[in-house]
Amino acid sequence: MKTTTRISLFYRSLALILICLLPITLSAQSGKTPLRVENGIVTSASRLASQVGVDILQDGGNAVDAAVATALALAVTWPTAGNIGGGGFLVYHGDDGHATTFDFREKAPLAASERMYVGDDGLSTNAQHRGFLSVGVPGTVAGLYEAHQALGSLPWADLVAPAVALARDGIPITYALYSGFSRNQPFWDQFPSSAAVFMNNGEPYQMGDNWVQPDLARTLERIQHQGRDGFYKGENARMLAAFMQENGGLITEEDLALYQPVEREPVRGTYRGYDIVSMPPPSSGGVGIIEMLNILEGFDLAALGHNSADYLHVLTEAMRRTYADRAEFLGDPDFNPDMPVSRLISKEHAASLRASIDMTQASVSDEAEFADIYESEETTHFSVVDQDGNMVSLTYTLENGYGSRIVAGSGGYLLNNEMGDFNPVPGVTNRDGQVGTDPNLVVPQKRMLSSMSPTIVARDGKPVLAIGSPGGRTIINTTMQVILNMIDHDLNVAQAVEAGRMHHQWLPDVTSMEANAFSPDTIRLYEAKGHETRVRGNQGSAMGIFIDRETGLFHGAADSRAGDGAAVGY
Ligand code: GLY
Fold this sequence. Notes:
Number of helices: 20
Shape: globular
Strand order of the largest sheet: 1-20-19-15-14-11-10
CATH class: Alpha Beta
CATH topology: Glutamine Phosphoribosylpyrophosphate, subunit 1, domain 1
CATH superfamily: Gamma-glutamyltranspeptidase, small (S) subunit
Strand content: 15-25%
Bound molecules: glycine
């Protein structure tokens, strides 16, 4: 680590404090015009966090350095999903062609068991979604640390420093924070450790208040100085295990010490001459995107027209078939060694699924097989490109917005409720919203299936697009539609993330369509093929970066669906 970098980081911290106090005049993007710059971009759901990442890039950090710093900053500035108490996935693609992924999905604690969410009546108790039993062993700090060890270049401590400063010195309460805090008031009333963070000495925070998080700053300082051990061992581990024991939770010091992220080979596919590099299981995202793109490659989507009724019909039919495979086959690969991933992403499988699509008539999702479960719409995605053209696509989550809404005792950070992504009742699959299939049942140390889909599209061995989104089960479809918008419909990255989207997930057999995104006559023509529709609000919020290999310029876009989001670059 060079002294100049340390000095520079000191001034960056000062600048961050000033940013919190002054009107922001950064190079940032909004709407349908991408930010176009020459050197580097971070696009995330929090302008402050994007700025932290860009500062690291300007200090000579690479894409992984910036991703680590951005993720930790989001844990301070975007508590609905930014986290150190949750988990996620990082996909990396270097300009040199090297691509890899880091899986830091949460795990079931050692004391978890297959029937822990089954009540005396044989039904789910719902404890997988709320309270202390919903918390999985967090993976974020270990995953970021592992990715940094493998691919980072600046010292770890320098990447944690901006998050410490933001937590210690405070950030302004924006409308997005204010409304999130207000919505969750009943939980702050329930959990004193959460009230200590999300209430201002017992009163609600107001817009413009300076929000300081001293407990979180102390936890981050331990992580800054001790690396992963600052979270998984010592003071934090003892505090978290004791807090769990006092409140009927399962996570122990042994669970924390045992947690390991996994560097995994990406799942790969091709689409119209592009390479799709994405997250393998326990994400269902990469497999899902590649399976759908393979089916859709057999249609002339550009000729069907963007968001026409015929276009929406073939998308729906690809989604229906792919989400059925998802429910049947996917789970944690470390517990499901025989998952047929290569078959699911093969062109042959796609061809046979495509052959069953009737252009005039919707298929029927077979209710007799499996039904679907509720999955939270929260989570957050960000994308990074550095001056050498290396890209990171990272999605991580607490599951629900603000996760379990339980702040970990004196640690100042929110705990996830990710256990809700397991199938809760073995063998019980019904239209009321439960899946009981084997691959995703609770087993100690197992990772729960996820829809998070951080993806990088490459051409001739070089990355050209980093993309992903929050949105629970809709993530896979959102990410795929942005890719189609760019490859088939020639939209720029900002237009591609802004465009209206829809979602079908096999069961329930209904298509949700963003309000005001599709004309009434399009919806009429679509419904005439036999599709049932419902209107919904925003579907996800995609964060994308495109590299124009002809001009060498980087194009960044933050979806305007994310209230505090921004693409920041230099
Ligand atoms: N909790 C959202 C996901 O992992 O897909």
